[in-house]
Structures are given as structure tokens and as C-alpha cells.
Amino acid sequence: MPRYNNQDRAFQVGDYWLSKQSRSDAWCRTWFDTKTRQTKRVSLRTADFDEAKQRLTDWFILSHTKQEEKPEDVALAEVFARFYEQHGKHLKSAADVNRTLRYWLEFYKDASVMEATKQDVQSNFRQWLADHKGLSVASVRKSLIIGKSALNWAWKRGELAQIPHIPLVKPPTPEPKGRPLEVSEVAQLLELTKGHHVSILISFMLGTAARTSAILELNLAQIDVDNRLVHLNPEGRVQTKKYRPTVKLPEQLVDYAAERKACDASEPLICYRGNGVNSVKTAWNRFRAKSGLEGNVQTYSFRHTMARWLRMKSVPAWEVAAQLGHKTPDYTTTEIYAPYDPAHLSKAVIAIDDFLGQVACELRVKSMSEFLLNSR
Fold first, then answer.
1. What are 213-256's pLDDT values in tens digits?
2. In the chain, what is the greatest distance between 2 CA atoms, to the nearest angstrom?
3. Which end of the chain has a smaller Cβ tally under 10 Å, C or N?
4. DSSP 27
């Protein structure tokens, strides 16, 4: 703990104290080197006494880590300081981590790890985050996870002898991103968007069950008409948790894809005046309002529509998951060539073609390709 000496040391932490050299106003970290038998100094680059005290204390905490400390013997602030300086500030979410750790310390102040993790105190902390900081249930949970991560980090490095339990609040059930649609509702939206690139987005979201972003970023070069495949993940793009699979190209969209590729096989599928489209929010909101459809209808509704349709058509659960990209496969040679297997997603694409065919009937055309080509 910091020690004060009113005689010759203005402030001291452990074996280190504050001092000044005669030719400088800056405070120094000062210590006695027992090997050289000399007093040594390192400038703290500040002439402000309070700031110098804080810098000396921070340096001491970060530089003098004890091993296997008991939770009752180490301050929560010390653990959090080391965690942030050595790990947290290098994360993409550094700003969130820093803000959250400040919430913890604002509430717990100089409490030890053990004091801060008592169950009744933790309950008060969760309530304080909600009442005084105005955090939602999801944000309270995130704050607890960040604090728990800091303690886990200290334990993995051998700084803590054990990790006290941090109970998490139950995550809220997320709102669906968009309700599923009926065939007639899809046809109504397509009729409204006829001639607009939103109609192409709708058709290919239905035809692939892909996410909105995957279709907006889809290039015609990713569509293999001969093998009836759509490579949703462009070459060179690293797969993420939102996995983009290779799926079958429905027969309902083959003629349209073939004609577009014959004109220019290198352009984006969704384009406006020859350029790719990054967002359709403005246009979508306009068409959505004009449609008068009730409920939460978004572009994501088309993905949910197909997910529900595939299950209604008794497509096996594993095939639905593969179509939606819910399960990321390992990149073995077998998986790379799986899409070229005639049986790959065969039941899913039959069901998707059936849905698109019913929509085409509602639009009074023979196929979705005919509808899209006539709308150009």
C-alpha cells in the first residue's frame, strides 16, 4: 500500500518514491539500487504531484505482479489495471472494455477481488448497473462478462489462486429480424419492386436463403450456371461465424443468371448504373411502407421465409442448416467438392424451386427468370 513520508519522501509505494532533480520540475520514480549502491531516478514526465502519485502507483501495480494471490489479498483495481494495460487496450472493443471496467471500479472502489464477488454484493452491482447507469439486460450481461474475463485472464496467468464465481444474468430473447412471409405477400412485394434492383435482391434471397449482405456482395462470377451453383463466399474472403455456403442455383433463376452473365460476367448481381449497391434501406423502406404489410417485415424476412418453408417441406434438418450456413464445415478436400455432388442440397433446392414457382404463378409468369428479365 502507498506510504507517506513527510520528511524526505513526498510519496512512496513499496521501495519506490517520488523525488525531483534540482534542474527539473518533473517528478521522478526513485529507488535505491542495492547492487550499485546508488539512488536511481526515472522521470514520470509530469510536474503535477497528484498525477505523479497516480503514475507511480499504476507503474508499481503493473510491474510488481504477485503469483497465486488469494482473492481476499488482492485489490480488484490492481487486477483490472494489469488486464487493461496488457490485454484489454489492444482489443478492438478497447473503448467498451475501458468503460465497463470503470463501472466496476466506480461501484466497488478499493474492494478486494473476494469482497467484490460476494453474491449479495454482485446482486447489488447488477441492480446498480440497471438503475444508475441505465443499462439494458443485455448490456448488464456484457458488463459482467468483461469483468469475469479480466479475472479469468489473471487466473490463467497465475496471478490469482482461484476465480470467484460471477453469476451472469440470463440473456434476453432476441427479437426476430423479420417475420416469415406467405407466397402472396412475396408476390405483392415483387410486383411493387418490379423493374427495381430490390426485386433481384428478393428473388435471390429466396433462391439461396442467404443473408442480405451476402446477396448485395454477390458477383455474377460467383454463379456457376453450368453446375447450378452459387458460391456465396467470394474467393479470397475469409469465412466468419456468419458462414456463407455454396448452394444450388434454383432452376427458376437459371435463365436470368445465364443472360446476365452473357452480357457481363464480371458485374455485381445487384447493381445500379453499373455499380454495386451497398444498401437498399431507403428503397426498401419506401416499398415496405407502400405494401401495407403488417408486422416486422424486413429484407431478412425472405431468409426466415425460406427456413420455415424448407422445414414445412420436410427437408432434413442437417440440409436446412447447410443451406442456411448455420454449420461451418471443415475445409477438407471432401467438403470442397461436396457442392458438385448431385445429391448436395437436392431436397432443399427442390423445395426452393417449388416456392419460387408458386410466386411466379401469382405474378402470372412461367418462371422467376421470366419476371426478372421482363422487368429490365
1. 999 999 999 999 999 999 999 988 988 888 999 999 999 999 99
2. 96
3. N
4. E
Give which of 113, 106, 177 is closest to 150, Cα–Cα. Answer: 113
Compute the distance between CA of residue 204 and CA of residue 280 in angstroms, rounded to an integer. 14
> Quick count: other Cβ atoms within 10 Å of Cβ 47?
12
Cell triple for 6 = 513527510
Q: Which of 56, 70, 71 is nearest to 1 (CA)?
A: 56
CA distance linking residue 77 with residue 21, whole number of Å: 31
**What is the Cα–Cα distance from 350 to 355, expressed in whole angstroms?**
9
Residue 89 pLDDT more than 90? no
Establish how many alpha carbons lie within 13 A of residue 162's alpha carbon, considering only the half-sphere containing its beta carbon. Answer: 9
C-alpha cell at 208: 439461396
User: Does residue 326 have a pLDDT over 90?
Assistant: no
Q: Grid coordinates 463501472 are at which residue?
A: 103
Beta-bridged to residue 275, according to DSSP, are 272
Q: Which three cell numbers stand for residue 151?
A: 479475472
For the segment 338-357, what is each residue's pLDDT rounded down to a tens digit? 555 656 789 999 999 999 99
Q: How far apart are CA 16 and CA 13, in angstroms?
A: 5
The model's pLDDT over 97-155, given as tens digits with 9 standing for 90+, comes to: 999 999 999 999 989 999 998 989 999 999 999 999 999 998 999 999 999 999 999 89
